[in-house]
Amino acid sequence: MFLLLFLAPGLILCDSDGIPADVQPLDQSPLEDIQKKVNDLWLSLLYPQFYEELLATNQTAYAVCVVKPNTKLDADKPQVTGHVLFKQAYPYGKLEAVFYLDGFPAGTNLSGRAIHVHQHGDLSDSCDSAGGHYNPFKVNHPKHPGDFGNFYSKGGKIIKYKSNLTATLFGPHTIIGRSIVIHEQEDDLGKGSNKASLENGNAGKRLACCVIGTSNKNQWANQFAEIPAKRRKRITK
Ligand SMILES: *[C@@H]1O[C@H](CO)[C@@H](O)[C@H](O)[C@H]1NC(C)=O
Ligand SMILES: *[C@@H]1O[C@H](CO)[C@@H](O)[C@H](O)[C@H]1NC(C)=O
Ligand SMILES: *[C@@H]1O[C@H](CO)[C@@H](O)[C@H](O)[C@H]1NC(C)=O
Ligand SMILES: [Cu+2]
Ligand SMILES: [Zn+2]
Q1: Which of 93, 161, 182, 222, CA to CA, is 20 to 30 A from 232?
Q2: Mean pLDDT of 161-165
Q3: Domain presence at residue 51
Q4: 26 and 90 share a domain?
Q5: Which of 77, 79, 101, 109 is the best mutation target for the ligand 3 pocket, counting ligand atoms within 8 Å of the beta carbon and taking the most?
Q6: What are phi and psi of 67, to 5 degrees?
Q7: Are residues 128 and 155 located together in one domain of the fold?
Q8: Interacting residues of 54 by C-beta distance below 8 A, sequence separation 6+
Q9: Is the pLDDT of residue 22 over 70?
Q10: With contact defined as beta carbons under 8 Å apart, do 207 and 113 qualify?
Q11: 35 and 107: one domain?
Q12: Is 133 a catalytic site residue?
């Protein structure tokens, strides 16, 4: 309780100074130190085990989403499986992701497929119960933290590394426990001049989905090694 009282003025100070939480500091000022303490407190209270694991794994968090085909899809649609892996250094690191998906039609498809974080980690009605886009800041698509954009398959696969993502594994807006949906169509990125475009990018049917959960680093280490070095270095949003 005393700690909370002590930290509260610090929070107000952060706001009035307008320092965005995602700025990576070169050295830690007292303000950033307070931000870290708030993050620490939040994590240790709400996710004590996750917090312990973080400290044990060199302050880097990992998460995984094991992609399964939408069970309500017509049989002639692609049966997409695979996983999306996440890595993020605590507390100031930006989220990195590896997308490894299989089951698209063979050949190179020049039309993209949209991938997003959706609101609910509920697949009780397969991908239909995942809800709409996860939208904690009440903004229009494609400004949602989990709007990962369009992905292009080659030889039936999507293999892609992305870094500097705005979604996060930490704090009140963690994507852990939310879902990922792989869509049939291209994301119009809000340029479709209709209401749906600003909600979901008119990305069409849900081909496959999964729930994001914490993980150890093993899968990241394995999959990351499969991404060609020159594709890894490129920083993509
Ligand atoms: C922990 O981080 C340090 C410095 O970033 C690195 O040299 C070391 O290999 C890491 N250890 C593990 C177990 O990942
Ligand atoms: C990372 O993303 C932010 C916006 O979220 C952008 O301002 C910044 O330039 C990006 N950094 C790199 C290295 O691409
Ligand atoms: C290419 O992708 C689009 C969706 O973005 C899909 O509708 C179309 O069937 C795909 N074409 C092939 C040949 O796979
Ligand atoms: Cu979506
Ligand atoms: Zn969106």
Answers
A1: 182
A2: 96
A3: no
A4: no
A5: 109
A6: -80, 130
A7: yes
A8: 43, 60, 61, 90
A9: no
A10: yes
A11: no
A12: yes
